[in-house]
Design brief:
The structure is a homodimer of 140-residue chains. Chain A is an alpha+beta fold and 140 residues long. Chain A has a single domain, classed as Orthogonal Bundle (Arc Repressor Mutant, subunit A). In chain A, 34% of the residues lie in helices and 24% in strands. Chain A contains five helices and six strands. In chain A, the strands form two sheets. A three-stranded antiparallel sheet of chain A has the order 1-3-2. A three-stranded mixed sheet of chain A has the order 5-4-6. The interface between A and B is large, with 38 and 38 residues. Chain A binds a DNA duplex (30 and 30 nucleotides) through residues 16, 18-21, 36-38, 47-51, 53-54, 57, 72-75.
Amino acid sequence: MEYKDIEIRLEKKGIKATANRITVYRALASAHVPVTLSMLEEALVTVDKSSIFRVLSLFLEHDVVHAFEDGRGVLHYELCGNEGHCDLSDSHLHFYCESCQKSYCLDDVHLPEISLPQGFTSHSISFVIKGICPHCQARQ
Amino acid sequence: MEYKDIEIRLEKKGIKATANRITVYRALASAHVPVTLSMLEEALVTVDKSSIFRVLSLFLEHDVVHAFEDGRGVLHYELCGNEGHCDLSDSHLHFYCESCQKSYCLDDVHLPEISLPQGFTSHSISFVIKGICPHCQARQ
DNA sequence: TAGCACTTTGCAACTGGGTTGCAAAAAAGT
DNA sequence: ACTTTTTTGCAACCCAGTTGCAAAGTGCTA
């Protein structure tokens, strides 16, 4: 994805496009799986951890990315779809591979409605399945 | 729950009943919600954090407790049912209250089967809904 | 374009949950 | 009683996430 496209995309979401933000955005776009702060830290040696963190927090606020926790309590971030408000994080399933530590976004798995007992109000839902991914399965 | 009952229960699961283990067990039993390491640490001032941790790890291994992560990556532990192998953690839903930080075990909510795409193998499933619990709702 | 305000960044330091090495204490075996 | 094994407390560490602060960068005004 080109510099200019990212710039336009960020500004559409109400974020000024700085060098770091574009760098982080590009990294998120080119990783084809949800990535963690430390993965980004490793990939983007020129950018400080705290800056990446702040960029990700900003992206979260402005629905540029959504995040979910894997089975170790580590957040994985991935870009939202382009249009409008991102509510993907509320509804879809993630798979975390305990072997390679990568996570997968299983958009296509149907998730049924859950009705909470009286009095509970839901803000977000996290469905994470831990196990072994096809790639690691094959490697054994 | 009495000392002797706990001792019997632990030994039935193949764990020697030491003072710390009984203390931790009792704390888990008397808290009627799933509790975290730090909650136990606070409640059991006589027992060291690392000891509580080791007891919990042992309990996990021997299916005395099961655990799940809330939305902050913090583990919550709760006693398994008494009989046989505990597979509760594989199937039921937890609710984490973002206001009071307590978690609830929603055993009675029906969770439908999820079929993973070809090649994925599931070891455990985590379904956590974050939001506001009835108690905190009422307090506002 | 100089001066000023605001924003963004890097650095260092810290938090908090979880985890480990090690030696002392306790329990079990002989 | 003495040796061996298990359990425990302490201190220290790991790592993800987070913050305070000052320096650098950006942009605006005059």
